[in-house]
Design a protein that fits this description.
This protein has 326 residues and is α/β, with parallel strands linked by helices. It has 3 domains: 18-159, no CATH class; 161-259; 279-325. Helix content is 56%, strand content 12%. Strands 1-2-3-4-7 form a 5-stranded mixed β-sheet, sandwiched between helices. Strands 5-6 form a two-stranded antiparallel ribbon. It is globular and about 65 Å long. This is Cytosolic protein.
């Protein structure tokens, strides 16, 4: 299959699926709910501010001792009746089904309710290619004591069917383009066909008359999700250049501008990560000596910013290096 690499068991091939989902949820959260969970969307007062509760969710993940999915998001909203509530979004984008997915949904759900005492709605988006993987509930029982947790689930693969696909193409919801890109990246085996789909989705943005800034945002997401081999990517860019010239677009093309913005964003993120790693190594050397810093250097430089922050907090009270990195 010609698509974005999936996450390896070690976590090294990461974020090619997850990163665009994380950004798409933050940028188009109302549109995401309107398209995939319309009943939830209808129950929210969109005149009130929404909050992305990343710190709160990270705390829950640490307490639950489960593997975090990078695209999972916890969002604070206000219901139409004025009640404050949280919406927990789980995006499952792995190539293989996860046996513990429903249990993880339940674990996060009850821990959020227990810790923060707020109503919580847990929603699942399954972007994998296994037709049979459709978790919608978690249950456990001992004698007459039973837990039965059920949650709304959307299987993106269902929208690959002709009628559902036509509905997506006809939708005026911008998030439909994100969903279509994810589906085609997952189900298309032939590179030439995938290139055609990528061009078709980009062209849809122009045909719908979106503003240039929105086109650039959507292009970056689609480009992340639909990766082509180098030769086909070059052909795609040439076709897009020709199309933009035909449409009398500015001389800086969409693909070039999106690439510039993506590069700048990734460069800033990488700089932050390097700074946090250097700070942690310095603290480790001051507290435990240079040999200890050298021993953990490779692990620190390979870690993500969230993990580096967690280790930096632990070092303040750690009596041994092992208690930091356990």
């Amino acid at each position: 299959m010609v698509s974005t690499p999936t996450r390896s068991s070690s976590g090294s091939a990461k974020s090619d699926y997850d990163s665009p989902w994380k950004e798409a949820l933050e940028r188009f959260f109302p549109e995401f709910l309107a398209l995939l969970f319309p009943r939830v969307h209808a129950g929210i007062d969109w005149s009130k501010e929404i909050q992305f509760l990343d710190k709160e969710f990270q705390q829950i993940v640490r307490e639950a001792k489960t593997t975090r999915r990078y695209a999972d998001k916890l969002v604070g909203v206000t219901l139409c009746d004025g009640t404050a509530a949280w919406v927990l979004i789980h995006v499952e984008v792995q190539g293989e089904p996860e046996a513990a997915f429903a249990e993880r949904m339940y674990t996060y759900h009850y821990k959020i309710r227990d810790r923060y005492q707020v109503p919580v709605a847990s929603l699942a988006v399954l972007a994998d290619t296994d037709h049979g993987f459709r978790p919608q509930h978690y249950s456990a029982a001992l004698w007459d004591c039973r837990v039965d947790f059920r949650f709304p689930m959307v299987k993106l693969l269902d929208s690959a069917e002709p009628q559902r696909w036509a509905e997506l193409e006809a939708s005026d919801n911008v998030f439909a383009l994100v969903v279509m890109a994810q589906i085609r990246a997952k189900v298309t085996d032939d590179g030439e066909t995938l290139k055609g789909w990528k061009f078709r989705l980009i062209r849809l943005m122009y045909e719908r008359g979106y503003e240039r800034a929105l086109i650039l945002e959507l292009f970056r997401l689609i480009d992340w999700m639909i990766r082509l081999p180098a030769g086909l990517e070059a052909d795609f860019r040439q076709e897009l250049y020709a199309y933009e010239e035909q449409q009398r677009m500015p001389y800086v093309t969409t693909v070039e501008q999106a690439g510039i913005e993506k590069g700048l964003k990734q460069g800033v993120k990488q700089g932050v990560k390097q700074g946090e790693a250097m700070m942690l190594l310095t603290l480790l050397q001051e507290k435990f000596g240079p040999d200890t810093a050298d021993a953990y250097r490779e692990r620190i430089t390979a870690a993500e910013p969230e993990q580096l922050l967690q280790w930096s907090i632990r070092i303040l009270s750690a009596e041994t290096p092992e208690t930091i990195f356990h």
